[in-house]
Amino acid sequence: MSRITTAFEGLRRAGRTALMPFLTMGYPHRESALELVPALVEAGADLIELGVPFSDPLADGATIQAASQQALANGMTPALCLEQVAALRERGVAVPLILMGYYNPFFQMGLEGFARRAAEAGVDGVIVPDLPPEESEPLQAALRGQGLDLIFLLAPTTDDARVRSVARRAGGFLYLVSLTGVTGARDRLPSDLERFVARVRQVTDLPLAVGFGIGRPEQAARVARIADGVIVGSALLRAIGSGADPVAAARTFVASLRRGMDGQGG
């Protein structure tokens, strides 16, 4: 059983919803993740997505694009991302760590080599937004051989037949994109989000985590009532980049989301 599956099962038994913040590795400084990740765990994060910077992040909005560009300018590379994951494990970080990255950098590392190095570093799963599930078998096989989950995204426009097809291939959890478009906090979430989550729930037993557009405690609380996980990225990165103390800003922001999800207000 993977660390991701174990985490979701433990949260289910406790009657809690997973809070899954997203960080761009190498932002705002090359080694910021080494301090930010422990702070997020302290503030209530249950799993953490670590974005591997890429020059053409097609699924990401302006905030994550800008963070990726800064991270690349800081010298962040896929190899350094793995080194930092290993360093986080050495420092005692025990929550599941999931790499979110685009296919080309992983392919350039060699799929078998990437999977082996990711497992050795302490990665638990991988999300690849630009990899169609129908073309995922080579990476899936490499990751499966190392005990890692390949996590797929589903959009509100995905029909039922494709939902079933994707769910059969997926591991860990399914990432439900709350809206059509790219990442970024929104003023309001779609009115039909509950219907989308319920539709996917009918065809799979995998945990369902919702991301894209979530940026405030009340929005996180709404998603927590219907899903198994809440993913927040752009709003967190904005908080990190807006103050003199990125770690304190990250801790405060994530703690407010956790309080909202736990029914304690923002």
Give an overview in words.
It is a single chain. It contains 12 helices and 9 strands. Strands 5-4-3-2-1-9-8-7-6 form a 9-stranded parallel β-sheet. About 2% of the residues have low confidence. It is of the alpha/beta class. The chain starts with a helix and ends in a 5-residue tail after the last helix. It has a single domain, classed as Alpha-Beta Barrel (TIM Barrel), CATH 3.20.20.70.
Features:
single chain, alpha/beta, TIM Barrel
> How many helix segments?
12
Mean pLDDT: 92
Query: Beta-sheet strand percentage?
Result: 5-15%
CATH architecture: Alpha-Beta Barrel
Low confidence ranges: 181-186
Write the layout of secondary structure elements.
Elements: H1 3-14, E1 18-24, H2 33-43, E2 48-51, H3 62-73, H4 78-90, E3 97-100, H5 103-108, H6 111-121, E4 125-127, H7 137-145, E5 149-151, E6 153-154, H8 160-169, E7 174-177, H9 193-201, E8 208-211, H10 217-224, E9 229-232, H11 234-242, H12 246-261
Parallel strand pairs: 1-2, 1-9, 2-3, 3-4, 4-5, 6-7, 7-8, 8-9
Summarize the structure in short.
With 266 residues, the protein is of the alpha/beta class.
